[in-house]
Amino acid sequence: RWGCTGSARRGREWFAASGSGRRGGAEELAEPGGGLEGWRGQSRGSPQQLAERYADLAASHSEALRQREEREWHNARLRQENARLRQENRRLRRENRSLFRQALLGPGAGDPEEPAAADPSEEAEVLRARLGRLQEKHRRALQHLRRCRAAAGPEASELDELLEE
User: Fold this and answer.
1) Position 58 in a domain
2) How far apart are CA 89 and CA 84, in angstroms?
3) Distances from the Cα of 38 to the Cα of 29, 54, 68, 71, 76, angstroms
4) Where does the record locate the signal sequence feature (predicted)?
5) How far apart are CA 131 and CA 124, in angstroms?
6) Residues 68, 96: one domain?
7) What pLDDT sits at residue 80?
8) In the chain, how many domains are there?
9) Are residues 80 and 127 in the same domain?
10) Between the CA of residue 17 and those of 11, 13, 24, what are the distances in Å?
11) What is the predicted pLDDT for the residue at 145?
12) Cα(127)–Cα(135) distance, integer angstroms
């Protein structure tokens, strides 16, 4: 596993020659279960233990692959949902713009019940009717503000500003 450089062999030889400060170096490496456990160049343990480790690694790998596939599937579902929501947002924005335009133009704008006047005198009459409706709405809004101000007491400075406008 260590490749062609022989680094595992050199490592063992160096370690055996150094004595490692413990028992006898080379004798320690020759003993089953002795030496540095978990050292990369050695595989300690019985064939059964190695088979169990391999099975655990294979199971972990399979689980990681399953989780990856699950994440990919979930991400694909989220991308589809995002696309659907983007379309819905576009539709709602268009609808909001349309409703806002209608509100700005007034209640008679685009109403099939109130046809557009071709004659200037009819157009003036339509505008007068719209002005009357707006004045009535304004009068009711002022009454509502005054009632709110009376109920709010001393905290009504904001309402006073609106009434002055």
Assistant:
1) yes
2) 9
3) 12, 15, 30, 34, 42
4) none
5) 10
6) yes
7) 96
8) 2
9) no
10) 10, 6, 9
11) 81
12) 12
Distances (CA, A) of 64 to 43, 67, 70, 87, 133: 25, 5, 10, 35, 69
Alpha helices in 106-156 (DSSP H): 120-152
pLDDT given for residue 91 in this prediction: 95
Vertex 21, ends 20 and 27: CA angle to 5°? 60
Overall pTM > 0.85? no
Residue 44: the pLDDT is: 72
Identify the DSSP state of 25: T
**Averaged in consecutive runs of 10 residues, what is the pLDDT profile of the chain (165 residues)?**
49 51 46 51 78 95 97 96 96 91 71 57 88 91 83 67 66
Which residues, in sequence order, are CB contacts of 152 under 8 Å at separation 6+? 159
Residue 129 lies in a domain: yes
Distances (CA, A) of 151 to 37, 125, 141, 160: 83, 39, 15, 13
Could you tell me if residue 157 is inside a domain? no
Alpha-carbon torsion, ordered 64, 69, 74, 75, to 10 deg: 100
Structure-token pair, residue 106? 């007034």
Domain range holding 77? Answer: 46-106
Amino acid, single-letter form, for residue 31? E
Q: Is residue 143 part of a domain?
A: yes
DSSP class of residue 115 equals P
Domain shared by 61 and 102, yes or no: yes
